[in-house]
Amino acid sequence: MKHRENWCVTNFFLLGWLQTQVSLELIVLTFWGEGCKEGRPRGPQLALLQLKCRLYVLHVIADQPLTAASRMTHQYPALSTEQKKELHDIAQRIVAPGKGILAADESVGSMAKRLNQIGVENTEENRRRYRQLLFSADERIDSCIGGVIFFHETLYQNSDDGTSFAKMIKDRGIVVGIKVDKGVVPLAGTDGETTTQGLDGLAERCAQYKKDGADFAKWRCVLKISEHTPSQLAIMENANVLARYASICQQNGIVPIVEPEILPDGDHDLKRCQYVTEKVLAAVYKALSDHHVYLEGTLLKPNMVTPGHACPSKCSSQEVAMATVTALRRTVPPAVPGVTFLSGGQSEEEASINLNAINTCPLGKPWALTFSYGRALQASALNAWRGQKENEKAATEEFIKRAEVNGLAALGKYISSGDGSGAAGQSLYVANHAY
C-alpha cells in the first residue's frame, strides 16, 4: 500500500498542474487502477506505467481545449469605431509634420519659482498676463505648435478683450490640452521613489474638461536613477497608474499623453540611462496593453536618453540621438502616432539640437518625433518679459523664435548657429524637478 501511495504522489506532481484542464481524479484513478490489476507495479512494469502516464499527459495537452480558468481574457469593446477615429485624428493633428506642443501647464507653485527669478510677484493676474503673451503670438506659430497644455487655472482665464484662452487657441486650429494629475506622492518603503495621484474623480474631471474645450491630457510620473533605483515596485506602480489614466481619458474622448519621466539627476552614464529607459517604457506599454488602451489614440512624452547631470563624461547630440531612438525602437509600438520629448532641464538650444539629431538619426523611426517643451520654449521669453508691459512684444518674439526653431528640429532641418551664449544657451536643470 505504501509503495502505491508513493507512486501516486510522484505522478500527482507530474499531473497536478493539469487540474484546471482535465479531471485530476480521473487521471489518478486511471493509472492507480492499472497499476493494481496484478498487484504492486514493479521494475519494468512500473517504468512502463510511468511512460504511459507521460504519454497520456501529452495526449491530454494536445486534445484538451482550454477551460475558462486558463483562457486569455476577452477584450470587450472599450471604444466604438467613431471614438477611435476621433482619438486618432486628434493625436495626428497634434504631431503633424513640423508641429509640437507648448507645455504651459506649470502649477501655481512652479510659476512662483519662474516669476521669482525675474522679480515678478506670483499673482493670478501676473500668471494670466504671462500666458497671454504666449497665446497671442502671431500666425508664425500656427505651423509649428500643434497643441498647448493648460493648467486648470489657465483653461478658465481670458485675454484682455474677454476671449477665453481656450477659444484663442482652438480658433487657430491648435489643440487644447489639460494637465490632469495631482502631483507625486511617496512610495513607502522605497529609496525616495514616488507615484502620481489623481485617479479619484478623474473620469468626471475629464468629462468636464472635454465640454470645456480640451481634447488631450497630460499625466506625469517620475522615476529616478541611482544605485538602487528605479525599483521594480516603482516601475510597475507608475506604469499601471499611467495605463489607468490613459484608459479613463479615452473613455471620455481625450487623447492621453503618457509621460514616464526619468529624471536627469545623478552621475549615471548614457548606457545606464538607456537601459533604464528601455525597462520603464517596456513596462508602460505592457500595462497599456493590459488595460486595453488604444495606442493609435495616445502620445508618448519621454525623456531623451542622456547622461546624468553630474556625469563627468558628456555625449554628443549624435550619441544622444542614437541611444534615444534605439531605446524607442526596442519598446514603443509603431501604432503610437508620436513621441513628444520633454526637455529635461536642457538649455533651449541643447534641446533643439538634440531633437534635430534624433530626427536625422539613421535608424527607422515609425513615429513622429517632436517636442513637448515648457522651459525650453519659454526661458528666453520669460527673461525678456520681466513683468513689464513694454517688454511683452519682445518676449512674444523670443517665444516665436524658439517655436520656429523646434518646428525645424522636428523635421530634422534645424542648423544651429553654434552660439551658446544668451538665455537660449543657459542650462535649465533643476534638481528633483517638480511642477
Keywords:
435 residues, alpha/beta, eight-stranded parallel β-sheet, two-stranded antiparallel sheet, 10 strands, 46% helix, disordered N terminus
Q: Specify Rg, calculated over alpha carbons.
A: 28 Å
Strand portion: 5-15%
Total number of strands: 10
**Mean pLDDT over the full residue set:** 88
The biggest sheet amounts to: 8 strands, parallel
The dominant shape is globular
| Class computed from helices, strands and strand pairing | alpha/beta
Helix content: 40-55%
Please give the order of strands in the largest beta sheet. Answer: 8-7-6-3-2-1-10-9
Q: What gap, in angstroms, lies between the N and C termini?
A: 72 Å
Number of helices: 15
Strand and helix order: HHHHEHHEHHEEEHEHEHEHEHEHH
Low-confidence segments, ≥5 residues, pLDDT <50?
Answer: 1-29
GO biological process, one term: glycolytic process
Catalytic activity: beta-D-fructose 1,6-bisphosphate = D-glyceraldehyde 3-phosphate + dihydroxyacetone phosphate
GO molecular function: fructose-bisphosphate aldolase activity
Signal peptide: 1-24
